[in-house]
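Recall the central idea of this unit: under ordinary conditions, the amino acid sequence of a chain determines the structure it adopts. In this exercise we apply that idea directly, starting from the sequence alone.
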Amino acid sequence: MKVKEIIDILNETAPPELAMSFDHVGLMTGSEENDVYKIMVCLDLDGRVLDEAEKNGCDMVVTHHPLIFHPVEDLTEDSVRGRLLCRIVRDRLNVFSAHTNLDFTDGGVNDALAAKLGLEDVTKTADMQHRYGVLEKSISFKEFAEKVDIKLGAEGVKCVVPDMFDTDRKINRVGVSCGSFDGAVDWIYENDIDVLVTGEVKHSAAIDLSMESFATVSAGHYPTEIWGAEALFSKLCEKLGGKVEIVMSKKGKNPLQSL
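Accordingly, the structure predicted from this sequence is:
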């Protein structure tokens, strides 16, 4: 298949118009006219995953986090990022990234996160940027946070628990917002959500959250988003199976490790 044919499928799966205005999505390196025989899907394309793609003979890598997010002012090998980009260009590797558009799309990262947490009756907000649902049965916040840690393989979640919020309180309605917390809370109150599960929470945002009436579980960026990359892999297998070979990266890992 041509790169442009695969891009058409990717854009149907995660429409680029869903991406936030600050985002950079689409083809990062290569050419739409190049031929593709084997695709690798990953969350992040780092040196380890690039080694894997080279050894597997991949012509194309589909990432969630953009390979190029900030403008590149030069292409030299004097930094780790520069060396990575130069290797990719020398390899003539076609790299495509679907970021916030994959977060928000139906069956995307937020939906995959909600499914991993076992939420039922999952509903999307009007702007499609968040999801919320209910647990099979009400449990204490403390027990819920422990389950989130285990289900996501987070190796230790962080919680923001307001003074008015009892950790033994039974909770049922859960909101999810993958990756970095965007600061939006109106949707949480509008939908009577007890707990927010998100990825990263900056200190200043945590201070504000500590004065809200709901609790927050910060499970980490990688643990809240890897499931969306796996969901994308499954979708591509369904849509492109038999036309090109598709593999999920096995070398990608959370860059933040517990010792």
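The chain has a mean pLDDT of 97.
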